[in-house]
Amino acid sequence: MSHVFPRHTAKAPPVCVGGEGCYLIDSAGKRYLDASGGAAVSCLGHGDRGVIDAVKAQLDRVAFAHTGFFTSEPAEALADLLIAHAPEGLDRVYLVSGGSEATEAAIKLARQYFVERGEPQRGRLIARQQSYHGNTIGALSAGGNEWRRRQFGPLLLDVSHIAPCYEYRLREDGENAEAYGRRAADALEEELLRVGPETVMAFMAEPVVGATAGAVPPAPGYFRRIREICDRYGILLILDEVMCGMGRTGTLFACEQDGVAPDILCIAKGLGAGYQPIGAMLCSGEIYGAIRDGSGFFQHGHTYLGHPAAAAAGHAVVKALIERDLVARSASQGAALRAALEARFGQHPHVGDIRGRGLFLGLELVADRASKAPFEPGERLAARLKAAAFEAGLICYPMSGTIDGRSGDHVLLAPPFIIADAEIAELVDKLEGALSVALGA
Ligand code: PMP
């Protein structure tokens, strides 16, 4: 019997005992191709010596020194490296232990910023229906994933959720992508005017939507328009790149491709690449300056923030991404994987859309291609696909589309950037086989 919480399954999951490159290995010796990097985490693959050695070396020096008293060499080096490559205007780094901590801190930072500026009426957040920002109460409030939110109702913050930017289902016939992007972004202005812009502190969004919708990129111009609206009404733009950041989409930060810089940027997952739990919140000099010149202290903090071993991992990961040119590899192998998916599934009767950027790709599964009708939730297609793939030795990330009534089942692919051409071929073969099993074909 396992005493490990939280998951209860009739059959205990296999015990993972090893990892090599793009593969995980269980105690029976079975190898699994990690085609989703867990959940877009393992960007360097498993067993990366450079990161392991960096963590070990830091543990040999000192494992922990509380940030209430000290900073550390790896935390300083990581922050310097991130700021050197960050979107314009981002100037300070707050190191945390994961994605939810980063988004939670971002919400609190936005709030404190406006309180310190003498605008305490700005307390409302606007986010999107098709989004996931984490599982702590503030982050869960920001997310629009109904299934995850449902039972926590009375505790959640009052957040407005506008329609997502989701071309596959929401762009109208005859509407071009730019016009749709503008219309989708204008939903933010409409909501601001509805609730009163002076009551709003920030808009929060994932540049490329991950877990709730399977790598949905924004329409062209969407985020430029969002940025304009935020500026016009004096609200902050918080971008959540916990999943899509750190080279996943083919640029170090996903928002680079949209030509915008946020006021606050959240990253995690690929930052530690699975070697240590770490996330970060980057903020503008303007926000930092307001707090420095006000109370002088961001009223937040967890014991493990800025953990030296985690920071050493993060620093080694970012260095590897840059020095080994792995972000460009995410773009080029992403193009190769996308081409292979299009060749194999482009005409598949149950694949409605193939989308994403870099090595952050999604397939939307539909009962009927022409009408885009999703599968009935009761069919649990995503769960069956996940099980069939796992059985075949493929780890992918399918999700059921019952979230907001707007998406069908989908599968997210986010393999390590080191994925080889032969492994791309194996991925596509195994996915095709698993989909046939799941569809009962
Ligand atoms: N934001 C996004 C966009 C995410 O995808 C996730 C995790 N799936 C989170 C936040 C929360 O991150 P964590 O699970 O590390 O708390």
TrEMBL record:
Q: Which InterPro entries match?
A: Aminotrans_3, Aminotrans_3_PPA_site, PyrdxlP-dep_Trfase, PyrdxlP-dep_Trfase_major, PyrdxlP-dep_Trfase_small
| Entry keyword annotation includes Lipid metabolism | no
The Gene Ontology terms for molecular function here are:
pyridoxal phosphate binding; transaminase activity
Keyword line: Aminotransferase, Pyridoxal phosphate, Transferase
Any Pfam family matching the protein: Aminotran_3
Q: Which CDD domains match?
A: OAT_like
User: What does UniProt give as GO cellular component?
Assistant: cytosol
Cofactor requirement: pyridoxal 5'-phosphate
Question: Would you identify the family this protein belongs to, as annotated?
Answer: Belongs to the class-III pyridoxal-phosphate-dependent aminotransferase family.
The record ties this protein, via PANTHER family, to:
AMINOTRANSFERASE (PTHR43094), AMINOTRANSFERASE CLASS-III (PTHR43094:SF1)
What is the designated name of this protein?
Answer: Adenosylmethionine-8-amino-7-oxononanoate aminotransferase
